[in-house]
Amino acid sequence: MANNYYTDCHKDEYKLIHPEKYMENIDPPISKSRWEYTMFAVCDINPFITKWGYEPFAIAYNSPVYMKQAIYRPDIYLECRYPDGREAKYLIEIKPTAYSVLPKAPKPPPAGCTDQAKLDRYAKRKLNYDRKNMDVMVNYAKWEAAAAWCKARGVNWLIANEKNMKGLFDPSIVI
What we know:
Elements: E1 12-13, E2 30-31, H1 34-45, E3 49-54, E4 59-63, E5 68-72, E6 76-81, E7 87-94, H2 116-153, E8 156-160, H3 171-174
Parallel strand pairs: 7-8
Antiparallel strand pairs: 1-2, 3-6, 4-5, 6-7
């Protein structure tokens, strides 16, 4: 029930620079946003990232929309080897903050309002609010399942958004 109220409508196949780092048996990465495309480039050229893949794992979660089990594919899996020899694995969901914060409820028209235009505008805002609320609840259910999946496998779970990833795409970081 994804409602694309926050999207840049970008879709493009990423051309791998280092195909040897990309996970085997995974389709070539096709970005759904400019941010994903940029993240692919970071994974591809960062010398500390030794292996990565786009939507490589299917994780079951309980959908609050359909009240049954559904499948979630987090965006990026990557493995790193740091200069000091430490190794780490990450599962990353790339998602704008708007998809993780419950929206503010629209203000209803005053009691006894008979202005049909106002009532229609409120109904439209309320429907949009309900859809956004459901999107956030679905994301929470997906992310809870992904966090449990990661914990069971010793993988770090991260939701990348515009607030916590500042500077990630600075070329001086990966060169």
